[in-house]
Amino acid sequence: MRIAALSDIHGNITALRAVLADIERRGITKIVNLGDTVSGPFDAAGTADLLMQLDIPTVRGNHDRQLFDRPASEMGRWEAWVIDDLADRHIGWLKSFPLTLEVDGVFLCHATPAKDDENWLDYRGPDDRLITRDLPDVAARSGGIKAPIILCGHTHAPRVVRLPNGPMVVNTGSVGCPAYLDIRCEPHFVQQTGAPDARYAVVEFVAGRWQADLIAVPYDPTDMVKLAREKGADSWERAITTGWMA
Ligand SMILES: [Fe+2]
Question: Which residues are found with C-beta within 5 Å of the ion, ligand 1?
C-alpha cells in the first residue's frame, strides 16, 4: 500500500499540479491532505475547487481554521489576502475538515495529534530558526496514538522520526511554501528548506514496516510569482523562486 501525503499547499496551485502529476507518474492512487490548504498570496479559490473535485481525505490546519473562526477584520495577512476570493462553498468545505483522521491505519494530523498549531518535531529556537526537538519532547506530543505511522505538516520542514516502541512520524514538508518569514517577532523568525521545489511524501508498507520517501518536485513558479507580486508578497516570491529566506 502506498499513500501520497500533501500538506501546506497554501493556495499554490502550480506546485499542487506538479505534485499531482508526479503522484500520477508513480501510479499512486491514494492521496491525503494534511491542511493549511489555501491561505497565502496565490490562487485560493482555484486550489480549493481542484481539491474539492479530487475529494481526498483532509485534516484541518491552523490556517484553514483561521479563515472561519474570527471576523475578517481580525484575520492575519495570509488569510486577509484570500478571504474575499473564497465563496461560501469553499468556507463550508474548510469547516468540514476534522482535526485528525485515520486512513487505512495511518494517522493524519496537521501539526500534532492534539493541536493544529503546535510545532512538533522542531521548535522555534532562540536563534530565530527551527531546532530539532529532543526525543522526550517529541514523544510527549505523540498523544498515545496506537497507529504505527503518523503523518503531519505545519512547520514546512520535511523530516522522518521514529519513536522507540512508538509510531514513525513523517513531516511531509510543504507543497506550496518552501520558506517563510515571521515578522511578528524580533528577531524575525526564518524557516527555509533551501530549494524552491514542491515537497510531499510517499509512505509505503514494505515487509512489515512503514517507510517514507520525502520528495522534492521542481516546477515553473512564474504564474504564482505574478500573483505574489500583485499582493506585494515579496518574501513569498523569494520563497517559491529560491527556497531561501535569510
Ligand atoms: Fe500550519
Answer: 36, 61-62, 154
pLDDT tens-digit profile of 58-92? 999 999 999 999 999 999 999 999 999 999 999 99
How far is ligand 1, taken at its centre, from the CA of residue 207, in Å? 33
Q: What is the number of other CB atoms lying within 10 angstroms of the CB of residue 226?
A: 11
Distance 191 CA to ligand 1 centre (A): 13
Give the number of domains in the chain: 1
| Cell, residue 169 | 512520524
C-alpha cell at 104: 487505512
* DSSP bridge partners of 189: 182
Segment 32-57, tens digit of pLDDT: 999 999 999 999 999 999 999 999 99
pTM score, two decimals? 0.97
- What is the pLDDT, as a whole number, of residue 246? 77
Residue span of the structural domain in which 222 resides: 2-242
Helix (H) or strand (E) holding 90: helix 88-95
Cis peptide before 126 (omega within 30 of 0): no
| Separation of alpha carbons 211 and 194, rounded Å | 24
> Residues near 246 by Cβ (< 8 Å), separated by ≥ 6?
190, 192
CATH number (domain holding residue 238): 3.60.21.10
